[in-house]
What we know:
Strand content: 25-35%
Shape: globular
Mean pLDDT: 88
Structural class: alpha+beta
Low-confidence stretches: none
Radius of gyration: 19 Å
Largest sheet: 5 strands, antiparallel
Distance between the termini: 42 Å
Number of strands: 9
Number of helices: 3
Helix content: 25-40%
Amino acid sequence: SSMVxxxxxxxxxxxxxxxxxxxxxxxxxxxxxxxxxxxALSSILIDWQAIEACTQTEVQLEAPDIEGLMYAWLSExxxxxxxxxxxxxQFQITKLDLQEDKCELPAIPSGALYDRDRPELKTYVQAITxxxxxxxxxxxxxxxxxxxxx
Length: 150
């Protein structure tokens, strides 16, 4: 029973830490809001203006709703950066298809592969989060709010 007593008298304090950062953006169209969000994510990671757009990557994503699609899109860019060593500076959304039950995003991000000469990382992003994720696609007042884990 001594262990139980020790446990009862132990002082436990949970620490809050804010290991996240986020961005908000506005654009004229739903497609533009996806492009701008990708640029915002890239600007958190790196100095994206220094990246030449010399290689193209085709991306085809779908999700049940617009927030899910935004999450999938930004997660894909993060994955391509982490796993395939791809850095992007341009984002072309070819045809955004938003239906009631399915949203589709075909896109062609352009950028460069890096190996040793990766540009200096500004902030390492661990993950995109659904925390307070908001996407509004009523043109011309489209907006987005995203938080990321750092």
